[in-house]
Amino acid sequence: MVRRGDGRPVARRPEVRLAGLEPWRGGGLEPDGDYDGLAFENADLGGQDGGGARFMDCALTGCVLDETRLRRARILDSRISAPRGVGTDLADTTLRDVEVLDARLGGARLHGAALERVLVRGGKLDFVNLRGARLRDVVFESCVLVEPDFGGARLERVGFVDCVVRGADFSAATLQDVDLRGAAELGIERGVERLAGAVISPGQLVELAPVLAGALGIRVEGE
């Protein structure tokens, strides 16, 4: 387990090394397909069904993922660069040792997914649904998260580094060794009372004070 200088556990980042990839020849994704050592370059995968497929040692670069169905897929030891799309279905998907770079995704469905050693760096994720997901050793870095839904999710060793978090929902979530101090902006709409197991900065505590008071039923009034 990796620890900071102050002894706190920190998320382990993926170490993705890709070499000698073969270009994907197209033809469309297939449910339960097996994709190993392939480079998907600027492919339009919109509306395709790769449910249950396995992607191993793959690079997906500049791909369009509008309404792409990848439910219950397994994405392993892979790098996803500059994906863009709306309504991508990744429910119940497994991502392990994966880098997601400069994503522009709206309404991505990741409920019930399992993320382990995942780096999300750069880009913007709008209304990502992570309800009931399991995140372990995940880092959100230099990205913008607009109304992310972590409702009922389990977060263990998750870090937020130089990123913007707006309108987050942590309702019924379970947090362990979650470091929010690096968030450049931290806005929590619901579930602030579920932050036990997280560490925040003194400044963030002041900013969250009104939300915390409301969650605890504390009335703040002048004399």
Automatic annotation (TrEMBL):
InterPro entries, per database record: 5peptide_repeat (IPR001646), Pentapeptide-BTB/POZ_domain (IPR051082)
Pfam families: Pentapeptide_4 (PF13599)
Signal peptide: none
Protein name per UniProt: Pentapeptide repeat-containing protein
Organism: Streptomyces flavalbus
